[in-house]
Amino acid sequence: MDRIRNFCIIAHIDHGKSTIADRLLEVTGTVSERQMVDQILDDMPLERERGITIKSHAIQMRYHARDDREYTLNLIDTPGHVDFSYEVSRSLAACEGAILVVDASQGVEAQTVSNAYLAVDAGLEIVPVINKIDLPGAMVPAVREQIIDLIGCREDEIILASAKAKIGIDEILEAVVQRIPQPKGSDEEPLRALIFDSIFDPYRGVVVYLRVFGGTLQEGNELLFYNTKKTFRAEEVGVLELTRVRTKIIKAGDVGYLIAGIKDVHDSSVGDTVMNALVPASESLPGYR
Asked: Model's pTM, two decimal places?
């Protein structure tokens, strides 16, 4: 578990969040340049049209760091629009850290502030990034000051980047590994996993995206969805790369998916805790509403 990092990227609309995500996927070799449809995480047609991230996707990358160790990085995409603040809070709850992206030509804006506060409230380690430093209108010194005022970081903690020009991407990956804490929890605890999203698959029913905080979740387990009091049997379990990759088991610290014959999206509500129905944990994860 000491080589797992769970993080998200937060930013005001159009500050380059999706482009940074694309570059991280490219540099880690998760996708090739040929596969790179711009803004790969936003694969709902409505999102492409409106240019805002609506559905939280999660994607796993492998990164060979400068310390010569390989890390598993789970990037949990957060809705970028203020109307989705509860969903954002659950995505953040699934992470230990956040990359805060600010456009060098626009500076800190309203959404930057609200998302930064949500991340601070969630206890996340924040990695600040000034993006688009190659734009003619870039105001790096001023934006640096704004970020320091906002989150109280040191000047040398702010990474200068341009996702379009591929500047600073390695530094961002190193900061994720070095600064964002590893997950807590152990495989020996009773199972507790947080639902941070779900999608409907016409062939498989509801696909639940979750983060395991304790215990293990494996195929064949009888599961209790704590707040809806529904029980299901785990049919397929795995991790989320560009597509679903079946692993049959996910453990404490992991981010993955669950297919359990769920027919109605409302049975898997965001923020609910998934437990083992036979040996349920004594309490659910906090924050459900």
From this structure: 0.90
